[in-house]
Amino acid sequence: MKRTAPSPRASTMRWLTWFLAGLTLVFCVSAMTSCATGTAATRAQPATPPPPPPPGLQANQRTSCPPLPPARSDLAPDLLENHDQVAALYHACSARTDNLQQALAEWRRTAWQWYCSAVAQLGLSTEGCAPHE
């Protein structure tokens, strides 16, 4: 039996297959080593941190002042007793309100200072970063 020469088309297809396989290999190797050759990693601009949250309030600071009790009658002993109750309730509510105002003032002073310094450390604009009094 006589040997026949391979067809030119079969050798061209074989050559093209090997060429594409080599090209794919070169592409994959270059893609995997591109960062190792000194390509600088990109970094996203950090977001502005959220403003400081309001202070946590105790349960007794969140309740409103109770209604003041009316006097039982127009007699002097009842009026004096009612006056004592009303005065005690008023002073207790006033003290609770003063404590709440002091806590909010302390929070405004310290939390906004911390927030503004954190924003400045990040290198972000401190344009709207003023203590809110």
UniProtKB/TrEMBL annotation:
<protein>
    <submittedName>
        <fullName>Uncharacterized protein</fullName>
    </submittedName>
</protein>
<feature type="compositionally biased region" description="Pro residues">
    <location>
        <begin position="47"/>
        <end position="56"/>
    </location>
</feature>
<feature type="region of interest" description="Disordered">
    <location>
        <begin position="39"/>
        <end position="76"/>
    </location>
</feature>
